Task: structure prediction
Amino acid sequence: MIGALAVAAVVVVPACGGDDDDGGSGGDGLTTQSGDSGEVTVEALDTLRFDRHSYRASAGEVTIVYENGGSLVHTLLIDGVDDFKLQVSANGDTDRGTVDLEPGDYRTYCDVPGHSSMEATLTVE
Ligand SMILES: [Cu+2]
Result:
């Protein structure tokens, strides 16, 4: 039972910054990447951010592909999911893991000390 998700003060990120949108399908997305939603790619940046503020996936088995676009060590954890942790330690490193998620908004974050600005919302629907 995942109780702790009430804190989702986050959800609608106004399209600030204008990250490159790779012109995906699906008209509703400020957020998302294209591609099949059973797989989500997250890139870690040495500016201590993920490449997006929010990600989207379909409920069920979600494979998260974590890529290191920087050169520091970065991790990726999901609030409320205990046994899930990805880690990339060098530039170009990729880690991946599959997790079973019910619909909801999940906070993902990097737990490396000093990296608390690395967080994003994963919306599962
Ligand atoms: Cu990090």
Summary: The mean pLDDT is 82. The chain is about 0% helix and 40% strand. Residues 44, 74, 110, 112, 115, 118 surround copper (II) ion (CB under 6 Å).
